[in-house]
Design goal:
There is one protein chain. The protein has 90 residues and is mainly alpha-helical. It has one domain. 91% of the residues lie in helices and 0% in strands. It is built from 2 helices and no strands. The longest helix is centred in the middle third of the chain and has 77 residues. The termini are far apart.
Length: 90
């Protein structure tokens, strides 16, 4: 066998290994990127849903407080000419 053909065969095998390695690395990077993107999206949606439920609970509590205040004001408006402040807020 000639020296040039052995050298070219080894270079061809090394080039093939390099190409396979680069392709494998790129595929792993793409797979990990897709997994991380999916995990981040799921975490973002869960966080947004938790935040929305917290804000919804706060708004509901505010609505209860406002309706109580309105009911008290309505009571005071009907009693106002002859009632004291203590009677309105009792």
């Amino acid at each position: 066998m000639k020296w040039n053909s052995i050298r070219s065969s080894i270079l061809a095998a090394m080039a093939a290994c390099l190409i396979v390695g680069v392709i494998g690395t790129l595929m792993l990077l793409r797979h990990n990127f897709a997994q991380n993107s999916h995990a981040l999206a799921v975490e973002s949606v869960d966080g947004a849903q938790r935040l929305f439920s917290i804000l919804e609970a706060r708004e509901t509590a505010k609505m209860v407080d406002v309706s109580d205040a309105l009911a008290t004001n309505r009571k005071c408006a009907t009693l106002w000419p002859r009632a004291t402040a203590a009677a309105c807020w009792a």
